[in-house]
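Hi W., the alpha-D-glucopyranose complex you wanted:
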Amino acid sequence: MNALRMPDALLRRHFADALPAARRDHALARWDAHAPRLFAALRRIYIDAPGSDHALSTLVAGMAACAGARADALHALDIARERDPRWFLAADMLGYSTYVDRFGGTLRGVAERVPYLQRLGVRYLHLLPFLRQRDGDSDGGFAVRDYDRVDPALGDDADLDTLTARLRDAGISLCADLVLNHTADDHRWALAACAGDARYRDYYHVFPDRTLPDAHERTLGQVFPLTAPGNFTEVPGLGHVWTTFYPYQWDLNWANPDVFVEMALTLLRLANRGVEAFRLDSTAYLWKRLGTDSMNQPEAHALIQALRAVVDIVAPGVLLKAEAIVPAPALVPYFGSGDDAGHECHLAYHSTLMASLWAALAERRADPLRTAFARTPALPAGCGWLAYLRCHDDIGWNVLREEAAGGAAHAGFDLARIARFYAGVEPGSDARGRGFQNAGEDVVHGTNGMTAALCGLDAARERGDAAALAAAEARFLLLHGLMLAAPGLPTLYMGDEIALGNDEAYAGDPLRADEGRWLHRPAMDWTTAEAVERGMADDSAGHIGTALRRMLGVRAAEPAFRGDAPMRVLGFDDPAVLGLLRGDDVLVLANLSPREVAVAPQGEDALPRAGWRDLLAHDDATHALPATLAPHALRWLRRIDKADARA
Ligand code: GLC
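Structure:
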């Protein structure tokens, strides 16, 4: 009998028999709670798949071994987080995302910088790929050659163990990328496939000729239309391999149960080395279906739900984060839908909100942002958004196509114009970003650049123009202030805490010159960072560094900024004004335009005029609700009467 048709009790016995005594009771209790979901998800996909018997027994034995091998410190985290499953949504949670080499040189270098991260208030550190990467170009490490080894340029396995222990002691959870959609073409599975091994050829999507690839292409999109057009690559001696991203990134065939087992056990091994969160890279692409864009397919969700159940059984302290850069309606299902709501990812990048923040700034109006916030649903308990402004990728405009078309809630906007604005070619724009993969002026794809460059700071610095500097600083802080006030776990992008600008040096590196995203992957400027920390930087880095730290401190202490505290979008007469109520009594006000605006709340959103404390000011004075907001001003206000009543 196919093992997926076996009664669950038999599978349980198989798991129990393989469990070492040490963690037996906990593991079995978790099995009882979560295994039904695991098998329901696996049955949806693999019930008729050849080889699922063998795959399933490897999975169950591997899960038992990993459950037994979980270190005491991690076991303690598991227990604590089962008791407090919303731990990562606390108001004092702050994320930070960076490349290992750009930030600390090596994993050891990162470990030495842990005190810096602590002083900033970081509790969640996303290190971009650090596993052994492809030789030559590797898409910044997203072409993984070996998931079980640290990249030798960044350290060794012992360094990873030391780093995770050090971070854990500092109360910082390490998040690592788990590149699920593809491996490098020099991964041993790919090499074996090339050598004619049928077992490993089945790990990938390999076609003998162009018939099926052409049929798929009719409905597929393109991630890198200019530098890697098409979705298939001809590999001599093998065939046409599905390569959604670069030709050297081979998409895995998740219809093969062995692939699921390999990746699930890879995840658990990394979790046992102290990785506490996984960024599930390119999750939207895991399942292919002819006649569709092969994104967000129901099977992709079932696969992630199965991974989540594996984690809940073996390493329940671990978080899963979806990296699915897709329009908002397709994003919410990554938290699970229907009966499975809350049983898929804990976190997902809120790419619509991120892109809407940038669109609103360029458009000088808040109404698209009001829509983005208003359409941000409350999530199942134990789920949260990953709020961010910049990351190592471009700002992808495609997620905003529907919003750009406009509707009842707001008038449309022109994404091509916004992309030109950030490339600095629109009248009145000081931005120093650059288009990414845009096929011509009007076919817009993405925008690259550091926040400082996109907000006009790089240009103002060059000109030494004090008024332009102040205006750019205001825009920088406005966007960060909104990102930090949004629901979810906010994540800073390395360098933004000191307003680091673009890095043009990539153009001189042959491996990077054709990849515009390196524009915003600079090396950390530790001299400036230290000056900012010591209060010795009397420039934009210092102004922004100080103001941002102030915001971080306020956010951390304010329960209304919990990642899962309620949010309401308020209505204002002026379309440039954004007002959000977090919790019952924290009001976030922003002016997205470069003109002074009147703060006139609409009808039922009338707010008390008096009795507000300005959370970002350095006094405890009571203020009236501001009647106007200066250009690009941001305010975080709290109603005092409520606060006093609470005290
Ligand atoms: C994700 C990464 C991106 C990478 C791609 C392919 O989108 O964020 O940097 O190019 O996956 O792995």
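The CA atoms of residues 498 and 529 lie 6 Å apart.

W.
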